[in-house]
Amino acid sequence: VIEMGQPNHAVITTCAYCGVGCGLKAELKGEELVRMTPWKDGKANEGHACVKGRFAWGYATHSDRITTPMIRSSINEPWRQVSWEEAINYAASEIKRIQAKYGQNSVGAISSSRCSNEEVYLVQKTVRAAMGNNNIDTCARVCHSPTGFGLKQTLGESAGTQTFESVADSDVILIIGANPTDAHPVFGSRLKKRLRQGAKLIVIDPRTISLVSTAHAKADYHLPLTPGTNVAMLNAFAHTIISENIQNKAFIAERCDSETFKEWLEFVLLDENSPESAATITGVPAQTIREAARLFATGGKAAIYYGLGVTEHSQGSTAVMAIANLAMITGNIGLSGVGVNPLRGQNNVQGSCDMGSFPHEFPGYRHVSDTATRNQFEQAWEVKLDANPGLRIPNMFNAAISGSFKGLYCQGEDILQSDPNTQHVEAALANLECLIVQDLFLNETAKYAHVFLPGASFLEKDGTFTNAERRISRIRKVMRPKSGMADWEITQALSNALGYPMQYESPSDIMDEIARLTPTFASISYAHIEKMGGSVQWPCNPQNPEGTPIMHIESFPHGKGTFVPTKYIPTNERTNKRFPLILTTGRILTQYNVGAQTRRTSNTVWHEEDLLEIHPHDASDRGVEDNDIVQITSRVGQIAMKAKVSTRVQPGVVYTTFHHPVSGSNVITTDNADWATSCPEYKVTAVQISKVENY
Ligand code: SF4
């Protein structure tokens, strides 16, 4: 299939947008990329791709690309173009100067879920080995960190249990806090196919997403709960199943830990978890909750798919654990057609977490305080490593504001746009003495940067991405890096300049090291991935040489499944007279995250603006009509955007997307965060809406 070196040739690679990870075929005329088509042998997509993967790659050659490194000693000065050598040496000398003045822990890095596994691995290694601390975090902090935490506590592994094709065997599909037809379209199509064949559908979502009622799908139950009440709803499902004695007793007895089950059982039968209590909290009638729970428990093989509508809450980790509890009591683990399936937003969220991007974990989710693991890395890397967890992203911001954190290396994430409470992030960035931004474009964050290192797009490098089903797929170089360096080469050069030597010849070398040091990746190499048809699902090791499409078939990593009581605790973000509506957020099909790539594609379909969906009752109370400009005011800020009057949202709830920097929805999101992982509570913001006259 790959015919490199021919005048007209094609290169097989992997989409760099969402966590489906579709295989794509990049077709070239000479050196020019002319077409991107779905790869028919791609196991995640089976010959399909969505509009983003097929058509939104123009950003790679857009004139906004920065291709020369730049430095400046103050953010008030103009940028100065310099050689790679000068930029890297300047960055390294600033990091060293800051550490000498403020201490070893005064610097750190943020790695990107848009970059490859090999690149992310090198960033965390540079922080741990060259900077000498664990101040490494990832943009997964703000999306699926609760998935990593919650699934590890319950099922024993920080990853989804299934393969995408598993949905073809599902009899009941429960979707909570996800909108697959817009956010994960190729998987959404597989799901619709199964629904057309007769599978039942339960949707738990504040908004009427298209799966609730379209020509292609109709949910058997839509439970439009109040944003922020997922845990109460999931507990009520479990309460119904246990009190009606329709749980899977054999699975619980054979596969689950009896002590934690007993404790959980006492908890779940409390009145506070009944459908009646949940009805008061969620706004969904108790009878509807009961019927949906019965269908889930007795309708055959039942699978749960969830997204950021579960994780981005103050109880994000609690909700993930409640989902795992629900799957275990109904025996929906370890078979095709069942399971717990986090739909990852970015192409390599799973991989960036696997690669040790969290401040408390080495690659393979092993705690930095574990002496045996630390010894292994110390021997392999020939350096003494810190046993204390480092700073998470929000802690970095707080430490920057208080003056103890002064240097940040930020790879491929526009934190100023992506992270909540923009004013707070601005205050933190303004206090840094050295901000190094590595990106394709001069993004919003770069306004506060002192060093700009021009990164490479996924079309300009080799490596691997890991999708939402743990599938490690190759990405292959389609064109030369515009700046002359792939991201792994930039990080390697920085590490060398900091005084910690790295001499990888290629990303394949890096993957070999990852495999040597990470038990779940032990059998992975580029040669093995090729042998397996271009991708393989981890764990892939001597026990599972061909990978693991479905996890936990016979046992869990820690033996038995662990139950965790999941008490519902309301968010601190309350509505009141001043802020009577709840704002929640989501995505549209034709945009991606903050739009840095999709908006730089020469096709007008990519330029849709963010709109505020508001229910007709709330709109008429405020004299708002379609296309009026409205002001959205929260406790932390205000923004304006166009209104769209719609019954897709319930009265009391408003909804928008976060794709356009002009609307800047994170100006109004708050500092509330998940109790376990600090994942921001993007999905619940109390707001007031008012019409802007004479806009
Ligand atoms: Fe890319 Fe996701 Fe679309 Fe597939 S579904 S082409 S991975 S954006």
TrEMBL record:
<keyword id="KW-0560">Oxidoreductase</keyword>
<keyword id="KW-0479">Metal-binding</keyword>
<keyword id="KW-0677">Repeat</keyword>
<comment type="similarity">
    <text>Belongs to the complex I 75 kDa subunit family.</text>
</comment>
<feature type="domain" description="4Fe-4S Mo/W bis-MGD-type">
    <location>
        <begin position="8"/>
        <end position="64"/>
    </location>
</feature>
<keyword id="KW-0004">4Fe-4S</keyword>
<keyword id="KW-0411">Iron-sulfur</keyword>
<keyword id="KW-0408">Iron</keyword>
<comment type="similarity">
    <text>In the C-terminal section; belongs to the prokaryotic molybdopterin-containing oxidoreductase family.</text>
</comment>
<keyword id="KW-0001">2Fe-2S</keyword>
<protein>
    <submittedName>
        <fullName>Formate dehydrogenase subunit alpha</fullName>
    </submittedName>
</protein>
